[in-house]
Each structure stands twice: as structure tokens, then as C-alpha cells.
Amino acid sequence: MHKLGERCDLFQEGGQATDPSIDKRMDFHFNAILDVVSEWRKDKSQNQDTPLGEKVQEVKKNFLQESGIQFSELEEKVLQFHLSNLEYACGSTLDQV
User: Please, which pLDDT band fits residue 46 given cuts at 50, 70 and 90?
Assistant: First the structure.
């Protein structure tokens, strides 16, 4: 066994490393989306619940419309990486969580 460091480079198709600043920025947006979903969820009962994947997409769409920000194709892929990693941690697609 080998101890892994804190560094976790993301590689694109073709083997090019993703700029760490892009990963950091998209990780920030990913966590901000989850924070909004978490705040929304606090006031809901079980029967008012919505699948996590659906709510994440709704919050992302609203954020992009309100902020006027448009993610590049690479930024979208990095955000999708973080969402996929969450699915892995949940052991299910986000539409089933």
C-alpha cells in the first residue's frame, strides 16, 4: 500500500491535464449548488422531496440565468466529474437519491 497525496489531477481525453484553477472554480460551484439544495431541503417534509439530480439541475439552471455566467465545455465536463463522483459516493444515480 502507498499513501496517496492530496493532489488529484484531472486528465482530459487525450491525456492533457486540466488546469487546477478550473477544477478549483468548478468545485466551488459544485459545492455552492449542493449548499443551495441543502438549504432548500431543510424546510421540506419527506413527501415534498425531489430527486437530488433534478434539484441540482434546477439550481444550476437558475444560477446560470441569474448570474449571466456561461460555463465553457471544459468547465461543464469538470462539473460533471464532481457530480459523477457524488453519484459514486452515493452508490446511485442522483435521480435516485
Answer: low
